[in-house]
């Protein structure tokens, strides 16, 4: 019924032990008989029957009540405190959104999923990425450098570009995209700008044209046929 110091009475089998089980605490209600008593069923470990120290997976320590409570169902584990939705890891098949401590079905567009199912930020140059090193797409006005795998700014003449900073895909107003992927203030002779501001070749019979089918001027010695517009 009692033990000599430094032993404690194990209430389960009335033996004297030098340490209590992990799910027990040293009960000194009767200071003359320190004994091992069970923690509250909600606790993994405790310092008193109603004061949890640690909690099982899927539970968190409520810092107001000092008892363990269930995490939100999306969380595999969650942060101690008062908010059960602050996840530390996720239940499958959800992914961990580290920025907001929540579990999600997909990462943000400027993030990638790592091998631990955690959403991680892409390199700051990327719009989207494959991993933390290589971009898969860039924001408008940038292109993927094939050597570094990162996004770089297009030349200031280009609105958008690819392959290299000077290989324009579209131009800033009021310039037009030439067939050699440069931007100029006007199209070359025997070309016309289409609706997307790309320079297109006139019909071979035109000196200048309104579109691919209608000449506006002709080479010397030729005239515009009123029926064909060539």
TrEMBL record:
<protein>
    <submittedName>
        <fullName>Zinc finger lsd1 subclass family protein, putative</fullName>
        <ecNumber>3.4.21.75</ecNumber>
    </submittedName>
</protein>
<keyword id="KW-0378">Hydrolase</keyword>
<dbReference type="InterPro" id="IPR009030">
    <property type="entry name" value="Growth_fac_rcpt_cys_sf"/>
</dbReference>
<dbReference type="GO" id="GO:0004252">
    <property type="term" value="F:serine-type endopeptidase activity"/>
</dbReference>
<dbReference type="InterPro" id="IPR006212">
    <property type="entry name" value="Furin_repeat"/>
</dbReference>
């Amino acid at each position: 019924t009692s033990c000599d110091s430094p032993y404690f009475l194990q209430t389960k089998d009335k033996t004297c032990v030098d340490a209590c089980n992990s799910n027990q605490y040293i009960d000194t209600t009767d200071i003359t008989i320190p004994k091992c008593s069970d923690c509250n069923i909600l606790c993994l470990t405790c310092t008193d029957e109603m004061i949890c120290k640690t909690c099982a997976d899927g539970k968190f320590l409520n810092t107001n009540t000092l008892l363990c409570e269930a995490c939100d169902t999306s969380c595999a584990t969650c942060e101690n405190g008062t908010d059960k939705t602050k996840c530390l890891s996720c239940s499958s098949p959800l992914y961990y959104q580290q920025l907001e401590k929540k579990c999600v079905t997909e990462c943000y567009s400027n993030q990638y999923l790592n091998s631990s199912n955690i959403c991680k930020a892409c390199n700051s140059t990327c719009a989207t990425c494959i991993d933390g090193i290589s971009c898969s797409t860039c924001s408008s006005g940038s292109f993927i450098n094939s050597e570094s795998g990162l996004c770089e700014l297009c030349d200031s003449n280009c609105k958008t570009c690819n392959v290299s900073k000077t290989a324009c895909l579209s131009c800033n107003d009021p310039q037009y995209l030439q067939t050699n992927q440069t931007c100029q203030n006007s199209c070359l002779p025997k070309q016309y700008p289409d609706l997307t501001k790309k320079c297109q070749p006139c019909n071979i019979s035109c000196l200048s044209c309104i579109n691919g089918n209608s000449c506006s001027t002709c080479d010397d010695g030729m005239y515009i046929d009123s029926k064909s517009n060539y």
